[in-house]
Design goal:
Elements lengths: L1 H14 L14 H37 L5 H13 L5 H9 L5 H5 L9 H10 L1
């Protein structure tokens, strides 16, 4: 019997008109929230995208420096070149930073990084 009484009451409550908002915010706060979102989209996101793009493109260079890759200067040049061609060369620089040349130690006597200029080379030998 209770089921027959509750059904019309619930149905009438569902069909009763109510104020509808299409937003999760009250109507007087929508403009302020829209202004905040627009500033984030126009300024913060592009700056964050550029910083992220730059960070990803210098990542192989930092990996090569940390691992003392013998061809670190070439990896650095490839990273810079990759910035100008839209990131197409970045995967090659990333793979190159994690690999070691196979016959490099046989040819040069070491598989560690040796600076090209004399000043850095003297500093590195003094530090050891």
């Amino acid at each position: 019997m209770k089921k027959t009484i509750l059904t019309p009451v619930l149905l009438s409550l569902l069909l009763a008109p109510d104020l509808a908002n299409a937003s999760f915010l009250p109507p007087d706060m929508i403009d302020g929230f829209a202004n905040i979102v627009s500033w984030v989209v126009l300024i913060v996101l592009p700056v964050g995208f550029i910083a992220g793009f730059w960070y990803v493109h210098i990542l192989p260079d930092t990996i090569a420096k940390r691992r003392e890759h013998p061809q670190r200067d070439a990896i650095h040049a490839l990273c810079l070149l990759s910035l100008f061609v839209g990131g197409l060369l970045w995967p090659f620089a990333y793979l190159w930073a994690y690999t070691r040349p196979t016959m490099y130690k046989l040819a040069y006597g070491t598989d560690k990084y040796m600076p090209l200029d004399k000043e850095h080379q003297e500093e590195q030998t003094e530090a050891k």
